[in-house]
Design goal:
The chain is α/β, with parallel strands linked by helices. It is 46% helix and 19% strand. The longest helix is centred in the last third of the chain and has 25 residues, at 214-238. The two termini are 27 Å apart.
């Protein structure tokens, strides 16, 4: 039976590992497992959402809204205006009011710079969920591509971008290998470049697709899949009766929140 693997589900799991290892208290003073169950459980309507998730949601919508505009309109539309549409209003979701404004100004600064470099370009894909069959792993892999750009003069070469509010090495490495496997499976070649932005840190990591080994990426994805399934089974065994929905409920987080 072909297995199903979605990138946003992996990201939720990888974040849970980071929070579990960094300390007992997660969002709203709870452990991550408690928060996970309430926010992403059967109803998917938990109210305990971290400030990172709220900011990621606003950032994703701002980028999507900006690049769906015509270039002539973008010239007269600051990204800050679009960010403000869904920026979290409740400062109590953040550690303190000063930090709230620090995060806001950092997001405005980073997004202004990032979007300004492609003000006249049209993305090939913008927050689209793509799927492909990975024959070597008998796996259906789906990835939400936040932004994909074709190189001018060379449409076969593309740049795949991902935007993270905070740097997360586990998620970055998983995304790089997932994209490499996806591109080989779907198009028979590596991607041009993979760019991962850590907005709070103001960092951009660029990985040329040609530098990635396909077999290494396949092994990485296989191990990730096995570990994720084991983690899900363990969580379900700890919470009898908690039927976590793995196939649905992802749409609210379509714009990069996980």
């Amino acid at each position: 039976m072909t297995k199903q693997l979605a990138d946003y589900e992996l990201e939720k799991w990888l974040r849970s590992l980071k929070l579990d290892s960094s300390g007992p208290a997660g969002a709203c003073g709870q452990t991550y497992n408690q928060t996970y169950s309430q926010s992403y459980g059967p109803t998917g309507g938990g109210s305990c959402i971290s400030w990172q998730q709220r900011v990621q949601y606003a950032v994703g919508h701002a980028i999507n809204d900006y690049f769906t505009l015509l270039p002539a309109v973008r010239l007269h539309t600051p990204i800050q205006v679009l960010l403000n549409r869904r920026w979290p209003r409740n400062q109590r979701d953040f550690p303190d009011p000063l930090f709230y404004w620090q995060v806001y100004h950092r997001m405005v600064s980073e997004l202004t710079f990032i979007t300004g470099t492609r003000i006249y370009e049209y993305p090939l894909a913008l927050y689209e969920n793509w799927g492909t069959h990975v024959a070597g792993l008998d796996l259906h892999l789906s990835i939400i591509f936040q932004a994909v750009w074709q190189e001018r003069g060379n449409p076969d070469r593309v740049t795949v971008q991902k935007f993270l509010v905070e740097e997360n090495e586990s998620i970055t490495q998983a995304f790089i290998h997932l994209v490499n496997v996806f591109w080989h499976s779907a198009f028979g070649r590596p991607p041009g470049d993979i760019e991962v932005y850590a907005l709070m840190e103001g960092r951009r990591q660029v990985i040329p697709g040609e530098s990635l080994d396909l077999q290494e990426s396949l092994d990485y994805v296989w191990l990730l899949q096995e570990a994720w399934e084991c983690g899900c089974c363990h969580r379900e065994s700890e919470e009898p009766g908690a039927d976590i929905n793995r196939t649905g409920g992802g749409e609210p987080w379509r714009l990069g929140v996980s």
